[in-house]
């Protein structure tokens, strides 16, 4: 974070941040932190941003700068899994005022570790297994075979796209007793 | 007169009845050729060429040939429906004698139904409504050391790939806890299967 002080935009952002009302800023922090793990989603809707402009007495450009910079600072905190004393120090280094630094630290203390954990759980694979269901039947007959009495299982694997863009997709797989045993042997050797 | 219903059911299918009439004057070699083609057809092999060959070179009219083929097909299909534990060879032969089919031909039919049935059984098992079954299953375990969001992630994850019998390939990640759930559930189903197979309902022979 030390290098940031030389970035003009950061300095400008910090000036705005320091000027903002403290309690409103705390709420802002919580909200941004909550939505940090959602890729590509804006923390605030258009309407909300309009309201924020009025509430914080900031022009549109200034508001965006504040939001982006705050998000960036929090993302860096997550990336390094920063400890509280270190966070406080780093913020002071970029001239964030003590009360705002305190607001950052409080927000981080309450929601930071959870956020790190959530992001840690996040994955790159296209889909993730969310739900497992199954059905165990005794197949008595088919159109091509009579008098079966064959144990038969169906596994229902519910997978979800990581970004929750599509609804859950169910994969159904059927198994005979033998096939299920083979499958079990494959998932055992782990 | 039989007291019990034969394997062909209460009412003999017309195709089989008509076939049995035509079989009377059929040459043995030709019968065997046609039988072989019908068995290949049931197994799903390509038999168009062989059939055309027979049609051209035999003295049978097209109509007669088609009656014989459809009768054989129907007869074999019905016989293959029943597991070998339930349809006994003697009963099968008796039923065919009832149709006045000659002993030689009965012996040939019996050799198909009671001989090596593994291919036929596999084909029959594939038919009927099916949910895709698992053809190939692969997995790997990764540990993410760092990502663009976290310098030190150290998060293990499991990637699974399922290739199903309908041709679809599904690739997805499985959190470690879900993986344990899969193992637990599969073991549970297997236990239930074992319990069920021990119970007497399955020992009833019909």
UniProtKB/TrEMBL annotation, chain A:
Residues 128-190 form the COMM domain. InterPro entries: COMM, COMMD10. It comes from the Eukaryota. PANTHER family: COMM DOMAIN CONTAINING PROTEIN 10, COMM DOMAIN-CONTAINING PROTEIN 10. This is COMM domain-containing protein. The lineage of its organism: Eukaryota, Metazoa, Chordata, Craniata, Vertebrata. The gene is COMMD10.
């Amino acid at each position: 974070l030390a290098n940031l002080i030389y970035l003009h935009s950061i300095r400008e952002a910090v000036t705005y941040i320091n000027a903002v009302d403290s309690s409103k800023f705390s709420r802002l922090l919580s909200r941004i932190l909550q939505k940090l793990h959602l890729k590509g989603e804006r923390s605030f809707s258009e309407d909300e941003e309009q309201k924020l402009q009025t509430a914080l007495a900031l022009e549109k450009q200034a508001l965006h700068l504040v939001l982006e910079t705050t998000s960036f600072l929090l993302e860096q905190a997550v990336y390094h899994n920063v400890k509280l004393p270190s966070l406080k120090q780093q913020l002071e280094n970029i001239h964030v005022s003590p009360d705002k630094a305190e607001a950052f630290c409080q927000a981080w203390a309450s929601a930071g570790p959870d956020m790190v954990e959530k992001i840690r759980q996040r994955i790159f694979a296209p889909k993730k297994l969310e739900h497992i269901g199954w059905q165990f039947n005794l197949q008595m007959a088919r159109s091509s075979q009579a008098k079966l009495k064959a144990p038969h299982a169906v596994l229902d694997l519910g997978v979800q796209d990581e970004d929750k863009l599509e609804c859950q997709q169910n994969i159904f797989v059927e198994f005979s007793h033998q096939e299920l045993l083979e499958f079990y042997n494959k998932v055992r050797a782990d | 007169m039989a007291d019990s219903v034969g394997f062909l059911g209460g009412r003999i299918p017309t195709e089989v009845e008509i076939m049995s009439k035509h079989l009377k004057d059929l040459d043995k070699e030709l019968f065997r050729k046609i039988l072989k083609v019908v068995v290949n057809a049931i197994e799903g092999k390509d038999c168009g060429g062989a059939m055309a060959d027979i049609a051209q070179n035999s003295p049978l009219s097209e109509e007669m040939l088609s009656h014989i083929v459809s009768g054989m097909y129907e007869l074999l299909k019905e016989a293959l429906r029943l597991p070998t534990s339930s349809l006994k060879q003697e009963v099968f032969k008796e039923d065919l004698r009832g149709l006045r089919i000659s002993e030689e031909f009965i012996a040939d039919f019996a050799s198909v139904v009671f001989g090596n049935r593994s291919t036929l059984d596999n084909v029959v098992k594939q038919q009927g409504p099916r949910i895709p079954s698992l053809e190939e299953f692969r997995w790997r375990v990764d540990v993410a050391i760092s990502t663009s969001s976290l310098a030190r992630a150290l998060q293990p994850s499991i990637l699974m790939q399922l290739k199903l019998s309908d041709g679809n390939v599904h690739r997805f990640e499985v959190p470690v806890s879900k993986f344990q759930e899969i193992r637990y559930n599969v073991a549970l189903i297997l236990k239930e299967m074992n319990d069920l197979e021990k119970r007497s309902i399955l020992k009833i022979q019909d």
